[in-house]
Write a structure and sequence with these properties.
Strand order of the largest sheet: 2-9-8-7-6-3-4-5
Distance between the termini: 57 Å
Strand content: 5-15%
Mean pLDDT: 90
Number of helices: 17
C-alpha cells in the first residue's frame, strides 16, 4: 500500500543512472549496434564487419596452439577452479613482468603487475584510482572512447589534445602543455594507435615523457596493440622512459595472441624513482581491485606458458597477414574518390580515412554514411564521430582477404551510387593541377582546396 501511495504522490519506484546511457553513447559497441540496426534483412549477402577490433572469428587469425594447450592443461589440473587472489596469481604476474622487461632497461617484478579482465578493465581501474573532485585528464582525439566514458563516469573533466594527421598522427605537445594544469591527473597515450595505426618513434615518445615530467603528471600508456607493427617504426614501450616520468602500462594478450574473449589484461607500473609508491598508488589499485572482479583463474594459470613458449613464427605470420591486408586496403581506397588515406598505418588493425561529403549527393556526415552503407551494402564500418572526429571513418583490415576485397568493392559501389554529378568536373580540375590520374582526389592538398572553397567541411 505504501508503494501505491508513493506512486500516487508522484514518486518514482526507481530512477536510472543517466551516466550509463552517456557512457554507452560514447562506446564503439553501442555505435556499432545502432549501425547494425540498419542492416537490410532481405540482403542475402553476408554482412562484413569492418568496424570491430576482433579478428579471432576468422580462421586465418586463429590463436597459437601454445595458447590452446596452456588453457587445456590449466583446466585438466583442476588446481585453478578457486578464486584468484586480488591482482592475480603470482606465477602469472611474474611472467607478465618478465615478458615486458625484455624491452625495458629495468627489471620489473611481480609486485609491479596487476592483472585485469582485459585492457578495458585496466582503463577503468587506473582512471578510477587517480580521480578526485575537480580533476581533469588529457585524452587523445581521435582516440579510444572508453577513456572518455570512464572519465565521465568518474566526474573527470575531459580535455582532448589533437593527434596531427599531417605529422603521421603525432601528439600535439604544445596543445598538451596548454591544456594541463595543477589538477591534471594523467595523459593517455595509445601506441600503436587505435584508431589511427600510428607507431610513435623513440624520439617522439621521449618528448612525450619530458613534457609529462614538466607538467608533473604520469603517462597512461595503452599498449594493447604492442608489437603489432609492420612499418618502418619499431614498437617502443613507454616504460623505456620510466626514469623520466612514471608510467602505467596497460596491455593484454587479446590482440597479439588473438584471444580478446579470454579477457586477460594488466596494469604494470614502471617507476624506478618510486614516486607512485610514495603516493600509495599501488595500494590504491589493490583496494579498487578488491571491489572488482578478477580474470578467470584458469586463464591466469595459462599465462606463463603462453608468454614464455609462443614461437616467433606465430607472431610473424600474424604480421604478414596484417601487412598483406593493409596493402590491399590501401590500394583499393585509392580507387574510391570520396575517402582518402592520408597516412598508411604502421601498426594495429585499422586505417583512418577522411570522408569528403562534398563529393556525395545525399550523405550528410560520417554516421549517415555508415548507416546507409550498412543498409545498402551490408558492410559495417565505424564513424569517426564516436572517436572524437567528424567525417572520418575507421576501417578494420584484420579479416580474411576475400571478405576484405568484397567489402571494399561494396564500399566503392556505394560511393559511386551516391556520387555527385560534378565529380568529373572536380577530377578535371585536379588533373589540371598536375596530380596523376588513377588516384582520384587522394591528395591532401586537393582536399584542402575543396574545403577552403566550400567553407563547409567540418573535420
Amino acid at each position: 500500500m505504501g508503494s501505491l501511495n508513493n506512486v500516487a504522490a508522484g514518486k518514482e519506484f526507481a530512477r536510472r543512472n543517466e551516466k550509463l546511457k552517456a557512457s554507452t553513447d560514447l562506446s564503439i559497441s553501442g555505435t556499432l549496434d545502432i549501425i547494425r540496426s540498419n542492416l537490410n534483412v532481405k540482403d542475402q549477402r553476408p554482412t562484413i564487419p569492418l568496424g570491430h577490433g576482433d579478428p579471432s572469428p576468422f580462421a586465418c587469425f586463429r590463436t597459437t596452439h601454445v595458447a590452446d594447450d596452456a588453457l587445456n592443461i590449466a583446466v585438466k589440473t583442476a588446481k585453478f577452479n578457486s578464486y584468484a587472489p586480488v591482482g592475480g596469481i603470482l606465477p602469472a604476474r611474474r611472467s607478465v613482468a618478465e615478458y615486458l622487461s625484455r624491452d625495458l632497461p629495468y627489471t620489473l617484478s611481480a609486485d609491479d603487475v596487476f592483472l585485469t579482465s582485459g585492457c578495458r578493465q585496466a582503463i577503468e581501474v587506473i582512471i578510477s584510482v587517480l580521480s578526485y573532485p575537480g580533476a581533469n585528464i588529457l585524452i587523445p582525439k581521435p582516440g579510444y572512447p572508453h577513456y572518455d566514458a570512464c572519465a565521465a563516469a568518474n566526474n573527470l573533466e575531459i580535455r582532448h589534445f589533437d593527434l596531427l594527421p599531417e605529422k603521421a598522427w603525432e601528439i600535439d605537445l604544445e596543445a598538451v602543455e596548454a591544456l594541463a594544469d595543477e589538477n591534471t591527473i594523467a595523459i593517455a597515450v595509445i601506441n600503436p594507435g587505435n584508431p589511427c595505426g600510428n607507431v610513435y618513434s623513440y624520439e617522439h615518445l621521449k618528448k612525450v615523457a619530458e613534457t609529462a615530467k614538466r607538467l608533473g603528471i604520469p603517462v597512461i600508456a595503452d599498449e594493447v596493440y604492442g608489437h603489432l607493427t609492420f612499418g618502418s617504426n619499431p614498437f617502443v614501450p613507454m616504460g623505456v622512459f620510466g626514469s623520466i616520468v612514471p608510467v602505467f602500462t596497460l596491455g593484454s594478450i587479446s590482440k597479439r595472441w588473438l584471444v580478446p574473449g579470454w579477457r586477460l589484461g594488466w596494469i604494470v607500473i614502471t617507476d624506478p624513482n618510486g614516486f607512485l609508491k610514495e603516493a600509495e598508488i599501488p595500494s590504491s589499485i589493490k583496494q579498487y581491485l578488491n571491489m572488482s572482479n578478477n580474470p578467470a583463474s584458469i586463464i591466469q594459470a595459462a599465462v606463463p606458458h603462453i608468454l614464455e613458449n609462443t614461437k616467433e613464427d606465430f607472431f610473424e605470420n600474424t604480421i604478414s597477414l596484417l601487412r598483406e591486408a593493409l596493402d590491399i586496403c590501401a590500394d583499393e581506397i585509392k580507387e574510391i574518390p570520396c575517402i582518402s588515406l592520408l597516412h598508411k598505418p604502421q601498426g594495429s588493425m585499422f586505417v583512418m580515412v577522411k570522408l569528403n561529403t562534398l563529393l556525395l549527393k545525399d550523405i550528410s556526415d560520417d554516421l549517415d554514411f555508415c548507416n546507409k552503407l550498412a543498409k545498402e551494402e551490408s558492410v559495417i564500418i565505424l564513424p569517426g564521430i564516436v572517436l572524437g572526429v567528424k567525417n572520418w571513418l575507421r576501417i578494420t583490415f584484420s579479416i580474411d582477404l576475400p571478405s576484405l576485397k568484397d567489402a571494399l568493392s561494396r564500399i566503392k559501389s556505394f560511393c559511386q551510387r551516391h556520387a555527385k554529378p560534378q565529380n568529373l568536373k572536380l577530377d578535371q580540375r585536379r588533373t589540371a593541377t598536375g596530380y596523376l590520374p588513377g588516384s582520384n582526389l587522394q591528395s591532401l592538398e586537393f582536399h584542402e582546396a575543396v574545403e577552403l572553397e566550400s567553407k563547409s567541411e567540418n573535420i
